[in-house]
Each structure stands twice: as structure tokens, then as C-alpha cells.
Design a protein that fits this description.
Blueprint (H helix, E strand, L loop, with lengths): L4 E5 L1 H18 L3 E5 L2 H11 L8 E5 L3 H6 L17 H6 L1 E2 L2 E2 L2 E6 L2 E5 L10 H14 L5 E4 L5 H10 L3 E6 L2 E8 L3 H15 L9 H9 L3 E6 L4 H6 L4 E4 L13 E9 L6 H12 L2 H10 L3 E2 L2 H6 L4 H11 L2 E2 L7 H15 L5 H19 L7
Parallel strand pairs: 1-2, 1-3, 8-11, 13-15
Antiparallel strand pairs: 3-13, 4-5, 6-13, 6-14, 7-11, 7-12, 9-10
Length: 383
């Protein structure tokens, strides 16, 4: 029986991976079959098929699947290969678990500052400058135009401030994330949340600010500065907004904001009979600069390779978002992340509505997260 490689990926990657599969076959004589699977179903389908020695040899998916797939022994660690030094640390960290790399990253995603050039000619360098600038704009337009607005009660969008000052979700150790050590009420987290509260207290943000309001105000030219991702850019272009993108201003001089980073990449089925060839395909073909650039051209996301960013220097949006991602923190790739979103959303809501002190709200959030993790820890123990 002839060997072939099967890849499961979502819609955006099908065409380019088929083309690359043809190139691989021409060079190595091994056919590559690319199968489209809805993104939301790849992981669950793989979890069912892989233990039976079935399913794709390679899946293309999100780094936050890694913990669950690695714990279940379903994905193969990727040995060190020379090209790894060309990838952003953030992207490699995202695909690492228990000190081993479990995927070849190709794209990153993170939020940044998006601003309207009609109101903002030079980007604020620090959050103090941003707050100052936002107040000027609010005053100048009598509240018709918002100087700064973002989805403040959403932990994903508020994370850059909390993590930037040294808050952390789970402690990073050489063995991986320690889910018993939660840093969301530490000194840095408190400082970041106090910066958010200050913006509320000084009237720059309001407790009701949310994603929908921010997005529609920016599209209508009624917001000067927002925090959002590359996914929103097309609609801002289509709305004719004269926009620019920059990393979120430093929290203080020398203290960068740290957004959450999501990473997409290729993982190998640990039970595949074609593991060796799959590894060759990823490390000697897919991971190469030329191939990664072709993938970028087919599906322009933030490149995970530093030298691919060099090739797309003429796209200032991609450059700015990639800078933002490279300074960020990979979203924890363990199932224990699930309770964090709601607990921190509640805490932010309590803080911005002035219902408790920053310290108390964050302490309570950490207790909630710990209780949820304890409750779920009978599934599997890993440190």
C-alpha cells in the first residue's frame, strides 16, 4: 500500500495546502491529501479518531488544543530543528507543553491599538499620553467623539494591562504551566486593574463600554482610539476610515503592554504510521521561510517566522499587529483556562462599577478559578 499524508485543516488553508502538497509530492514522491474539516470540529473529531489509530496524520489548529491533546498522548513532540531560531518565541512557547514543542506554528493573532488618523496624528507612546490625548478629544468634540473606547469588562481585551504589569494566569515553569499558581491577584495584576479603574474614574472609559459600541463608533468615525484585532481591519477599510495600527502604548516607560496571543500551527498524530514522513513534511518543508511566505500570501495572518515579517514590511498593519503579538503572552494552552474567562469578566465588571476594591475583586476571582479547577481536577492530574 502506498504511503500518503492526510491533513485536516479549515477552509482558509485548503487551497494553499493542496498546492504545497503537490510540490511536496513532486520532490519526495509522497502524495498529500488535504481534507476540509470545519475549524470547530477538528479537535473533537481528532480526539475520537486518533486513539483508534485513525484520523489525519497532521492537523492544522489552535495552540490552546495542545494541553489536552498532549496529555492524552495524541500529538507527537517536535524535535529541535535548525529553523526554529527563526520563529518568534511567543509562537514556540504557545505550542509547548511540559517543556516540549508539539507543533510548528505558522500564524499568530493578538490585539493592538487601532486609531483614526483624522484625530490622532502621532501615536501615544505611554498610557499616560493616551489618557491625556483621549481627554483632549472628548473635550474638543463635546463627547460626540470618544477619545478611547474598548471592551473593558472583557478579560481578553483588558489582559494587556493586567499581564503587562506582571499579572499572570498560570505560572510558567521549565516543565510548563503550573495551574496551582495563579497570578491574577498579585501586585502586577492589581496595578494593571487600577490603571483600568483610573480610566473609568477619569471619565475616559465608561462601565457600559463594550465591543459592539466600540466597533460601530469606530466604523462611523466617532472613536479616535480602540483596541481590536486584525480581523476587524477589513470592515474599517470598507467604512473608509483613515486608520492606523500600533502596539498598545507602554503602561509606563519601559513597561510594554502584553496582549494574549493565539497561535495557529501544524500538529502530528502521535499514533500515525506515517509519523516520520509527517515530521519530514513539517520540519523540512512547511517550516521553511519560502513555504511560510506562500502560506502567508494565501491567508494573510501575522507570520510566526521573523524573517517572513521582513518580506511583508510593506504592510504596516501586519507589522504593527505582529510587533504586538511578539510582545504578548500565549493564551494558556491547558483546559484549566476555561473558568478564568468568566471569573475575570466578573471581577472586571465589579471593579469598573465600583462594587468592590480592585484587590478584593481580584482575590475573589482567583478563589473562584481555584475552586473550579479543584472541581474539575479528577479528570487528570498533571504538573
Amino acid at each position: 500500500m502506498q504511503t500518503k499524508l492526510t491533513i485536516w485543516c479549515s477552509e482558509k488553508q485548503v487551497d494553499i495546502l493542496q498546492k504545497l502538497g503537490e510540490e511536496f509530492k513532486a520532490k519526495y514522491g509522497i502524495p498529500v491529501e488535504v481534507q476540509y474539516v470545519d475549524f470547530g470540529s477538528i479537535k473533537s473529531k481528532f480526539l475520537t479518531a486518533a486513539p483508534q489509530g485513525q484520523g489525519a496524520d497532521i492537523i492544522v489548529g489552535a495552540h490552546d488544543w495542545v494541553g489536552e491533546l498532549a496529555v492524552n498522548g495524541l500529538i507527537e513532540p517536535i524535535p529541535n530543528f535548525s529553523d526554529l531560531k527563526n520563529f518568534y518565541d511567543t509562537a514556540l512557547k504557545a505550542f509547548s507543553y511540559g517543556g516540549k514543542l508539539y507543533g510548528v506554528p505558522y500564524a499568530m493573532e493578538a490585539v493592538a491599538l487601532i486609531y483614526n488618523k483624522d484625530y490622532v496624528d502621532s501615536v501615544p507612546k505611554t498610557m499616560d499620553e493616551l489618557i491625556e490625548k483621549a481627554k483632549q478629544i472628548d473635550e474638543e468634540y463635546g463627547g460626540e467623539v470618544r477619545g478611547f473606547i474598548y471592551d473593558v469588562a472583557n478579560f481578553y481585551f483588558s489582559a494587556p494591562f493586567i499581564l503587562g504589569y506582571g499579572g499572570y494566569v498560570f505560572k510558567e515553569t521549565p516543565q510548563g504551566l503550573d495551574v496551582t499558581d495563579i497570578g491574577l491577584a498579585n501586585e502586577g495584576a492589581v496595578k494593571g486593574a487600577k490603571l483600568i479603574k483610573r480610566m473609568i474614574d477619569e471619565g475616559v472609559l465608561t462601565p457600559g463600554d463594550n465591543y459592539g459600541t466600540m466597533d460601530s463608533m469606530f466604523k462611523e468615525g466617532l472613536a479616535a482610539m480602540i483596541i481590536n484585532g486584525l480581523w476587524a481591519i477589513k470592515s474599517y477599510k470598507d467604512a473608509g476610515i483613515n486608520y492606523g495600527v500600533a502596539p498598545i502604548p507602554e503602561l509606563e516607560p519601559g513597561v510594554p503592554a502584553k496582549p494574549f496571543v493565539g497561535v495557529q500551527g501544524f500538529m502530528i498524530n502521535a499514533k500515525s504510521p506515517n509519523k516520520v514522513i509527517a515530521m519530514e513534511f513539517l520540519t523540512n518543508f512547511i517550516a521553511r521561510k519560502e513555504t511560510m511566505y506562500k502560506i502567508y500570501l494565501a491567508d494573510p495572518r501575522l507570520p510566526a517566522r521573523k524573517d517572513v515579517l521582513e518580506l511583508v514590511k510593506d504592510n504596516p498593519d501586519v507589522v504593527a499587529f505582529t510587533q504586538s503579538a511578539s510582545m504578548g503572552t500565549p493564551m494558556p494552552n491547558v483546559p484549566e483556562m476555561a473558568p478564568v474567562w468568566s471569573a475575570m469578566g466578573d471581577a472586571l465588571s465589579i471593579i469598573i462599577n465600583g462594587q468592590a476594591s480592585v484587590e478584593d475583586a481580584l482575590k475573589e476571582a482567583v478563589e473562584k478559578i481555584k475552586a473550579q479547577i479543584e472541581k474539575g481536577s479528577h479528570h487528570h492530574h498533571h504538573h
